[in-house]
Design a protein that fits this description.
The chain is mainly alpha-helical and 62 residues long. 89% of the residues lie in helices and 0% in strands. The protein is built from 3 helices and no strands. Helix 1 crosses helix 2. It is flat and about 40 Å long.
Length: 62
């Protein structure tokens, strides 16, 4: 698989996964977004860092 195709496949999968919660449970999604909006910048950055590290770990394992 060439780099461009892998990039667009990964982007499509992210969009699909990100769309599942608002599609199936919009009220819970709205509640979660409201709670996230209440977090401080440092807390949001920490969760972003955790997501990056988890993604890198998955790439290294598989």
């Amino acid at each position: 698989m060439e780099w461009g195709q892998a990039f667009w496949t990964a982007t499509a999968l992210v969009l699909i996964l990100e769309g599942l919660l608002p599609f199936f449970s919009p009220a819970n999604w709205r509640k979660a977004m409201a709670q996230i909006a209440q977090l401080r910048d440092g807390q949001i950055r920490f969760f972003g860092l955790l997501a990056i590290l988890a993604g890198l770990a998955i790439l290294l394992v598989f």
